[in-house]
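Hi! If you just cloned this repository, the fastest way to understand the data is to look at a raw example. We've pasted two of them here, unedited. The first protein comes first, obviously.
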Amino acid sequence: MISNQILQSTLDGLKAIARVELCVIDVDGKTAATTADGLEEYLPQARAFVDSPADSQEVQGNQFFKIYDEQQLEYILIVGGAGENIYMIGKMAAFQIQNLLVAYKERFDKDNFIKNLLLDNLLLVDIYSRAKKLYIPVDAQRVVLIIECSAGREDNILEQMRPVFGNNNRDFITAVDENNVIIVKALTENDEMKEIEHYTANLIEWLETEGYSESRISYGTIVQEIKEVSRSYKEAKMAMDVGKIFFDERRVIAYSELGVGRLIYQLPIPLCKMFIREIFGGKSPDDFDEETLTTISKFFENSLNVSETSRQLFIHRNTLVYRLDKLQKSTGLDLRVFEDAITFKIALMVVKYMKYMEFFEY
């Protein structure tokens, strides 16, 4: 069924063109949309008209019309006034609402199919048969994007986004929960990554304009067939979660950019705790002072280059060497040695993952 908001917008547009008052009532006798409160006084007559065999009828100087969805009565349309012209306007208005019902039902069918496709709820044979029935190409390059918006907003971002980003009959916009919007994006250009970057940049700009300044976007890998869309969705979900842990400063994150982070994300917490005990003994990286943590971070940023790190920290090279020697004594790891540096880097990421999961649990 069409939302009352869409019905109201349609009636307002029809009134602006035809200059007549209109009212739509559902089969339960409740007003779905109206351009004039005066027409609501005809609710009893509308309820009686529901049981009438006629499809249209003039009642007390107003025209009544029945609107069907595949032989099922959905609405009663009341047009304020009588006469041939009013009758023709009513017929056109009823036809417009009838077409809206068909269009929204088709969109609902597609939306239902896409949701089940994303959640991997369809057999392979059903995917291809339903896609064919809904005129959805099965062989097309697609990528799944997830947009997570800050909680607490009462407006429907999904309905806001559909007219802007889902009006080309190739992309699908849906949602499986209240916080995330999912876009199944069809790709057309030869350089797919450039197309995705351009698209996500437009999304971020639009979200900023609409007041969603804390939103995040993640996306999976590009798939070639419709049956693989669920895989891209799972990758996008992982990218969203892992991105919050290891790339919290980024608004857009791709699954292909997660690196070792996606491996750490799948480790059980007891194994992580055991690994940290083996690396740091009874200590934790949180126990290091701010100076040591800054030194470590900058050293990794500069690919273990002592000279460049000391220059950016505005300290003497020997001071940096002293700090690294001190760290080696406390941890047994020399960050100037590639293997030790890798171990230390992974340990820091594991600690970050553990802290995130601890916060998430509570």
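Ok, and the second one:
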Amino acid sequence: MTAATVGVLRETVPAERRVALVPDLVPAVGRLGVTVLMEPGAGVPAGHHDADYRAAGASVTGRAELLCRADVLIGIHPPNVDPVRELRPGQVLAALLRPQRIPYLVRQWADRGVTAIGLDLAPDLPAAYPLDAEASQARVAGYRAVLLAAERLDRCLPPWGTTDGPFDPVRVLVVGAGPAGLQAIDTARRFGAPVHAVEPRHRERAAVAALGAELLDLPGLRPVADDRELWEALDRERPAWAAGLAEAAVRYDIVVTALATPGRLPPVLLHVATTARLRPGTVLVDLAGGSEGGNVEGALPGTATPDGDGGDGGGATVIAAGELAARVPGTASRAYAHNVLALLDRLLRGGPFAGDPVLGPMLVTDRGAVRHEPTGRLLMEATAAAGLP
């Protein structure tokens, strides 16, 4: 690829405060031989003003001109633009696409000849780690989840003691030790809280132990090798896991759920009957929660049940986190910008994207076709259901 111009769009999703490129990294992008265009006000919610970008070497230009000139369009979310009128064949679009949520828009990108790259679809390869924005944003969310729980908790998180008598420590349970769960474990441990984790995957279990947390094994939970085996085990053992988790969760003050893998709906592990049994004052944060659901039944993204006695939550606070990284826009934007820099470096090496072991799995559309197989299947099923050829 010989792209010479990158355009960074202003986010339009409500409550989104991140920006895809921060001023500090504009010079590094420039050293790749790339011109940077910023939409006016793109960085303001994250604390970066247009003058900061100009001082770093970027140009600030209106959306219409940016869309016309940019060879690569960068954002946090899929852009709110008309693929036919505002995009052009051969243009590259990169963001956290989550393509299975937007299959018909993906189809439009393919029909228009746009190459769409999902920064949430990096493969599990060492060379792909610098591009993995899903992981970088999950780590920010895991950190923020513990702070959010501590803020809602009716006690101080560290184990405190006085001459009058000791306070019981705040007990933390983390379900799922992917990037978000591991960061939640590390953050809670740094606060001095005893932490247990539920995690069946071998590599993640080793990471839990390395952070000093204890593994909590549920009935029916046997260690598995990878995500594929995890989902096979969930299909067989989910009722037993849910029952064991229901018994365990009532012993903790903070519960963080983060069991999810790209391309699959998060498994429901905590049901309404379970959350009703949580002790008054308990805080439950569902990091897997999204528009399609999460690990906690019925939790709506971006919402929290109020503290109080009685009610559906039994006096507990249940928080469906949604896009929690957006609440830490400074750190999250900088982490994302490093992912963007790594992506641009990879794009500019040349060669077909489909043959690249890193970029190939991240392709959602390319050369007029939908390359992301799960999204392609959704479109085929919808076409067949409609009786279309």
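That's it. A detail worth noticing about the second one: Residues 307-313 have pLDDT under 50 and may be disordered.
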